[in-house]
Predict the structure.
Amino acid sequence: MAGKASNIQLWQYITAIMLIFLLGYHLVQRLPWLYNVSTYDQTLTSAIVYHQYRVGGWALLLLAYVALFHGLNGVRNMLFELHQGRIYNTVINVLFWIVFIVFSIIATVTVAKLPPI
Amino acid sequence: MGSVDKEVELKNRKGFWRESLNPWLVRAKNNPERVAYVLHRVTGFIIIAFLLAHILETDSPVWTQYAPINGLTAWSAWSYIMHVESAWYLKIGEFIVAGSVFFHALNGFRLLLTEFFGVGIGKPVEPKPPYEAPTLSAPQRTWLYIVFVLSIVLWAFSAYLIFG
């Protein structure tokens, strides 16, 4: 389940490349002048956020999966540096997958079950 | 591993805290790479903590239908959460996250170019004294300074957006 260290790092780079585009898209969504509003807070109104989910919900969902994997895998990498033995590594791996799967499900539910305004 | 080797290994094994903190200890004098290395980790921690909270927050239009906040459900609850988050002290947190994202992204892009694509480090050659790592060459350090400067510029821009 742990996989080779080189594979873990390879996935870290692949998800990083994907994040450049996906996170860039998500950050641009907070620029007020793209939505004809004057402040950053106004880009977070329910109407605008709902519209963003309708138009690019799939990209936001992909961003959630990729960011979760990249972030949790980074933490897992750092925890592996402590070299506390096989049981410790197994616990770290199990926790990684539990947190990744639980939060991925929550993100999926957000997009799939989003109520209309 | 023989019993003698095992004994020597155990005698020299670092304690949990020493081992844990070892990669984080900074010798920052004339060593911006080391500063960037630690900052990349610290900002990574900040971002993953925010990400987990952000996923729960953005799911609020869904979960508040089953567990209302102050009697508010769905998009009313979302508006309420956004109102709470517009407090100045929470905006400072948002500002810290923005700075973390910009530094982590730009430094990560630099690492991608260098470590993954091998840009700017030349072809592999036989090591010769004084054994300087190609990743510490002058252009690499210039890239690092560009990352620091761009991060500060973008962080200032995010302050304009968040507090403006």
User: Anything to note?
Assistant: Chain B touches chain A through 34 residues (CB under 8 Å). The mean pLDDT of chain B is 85.
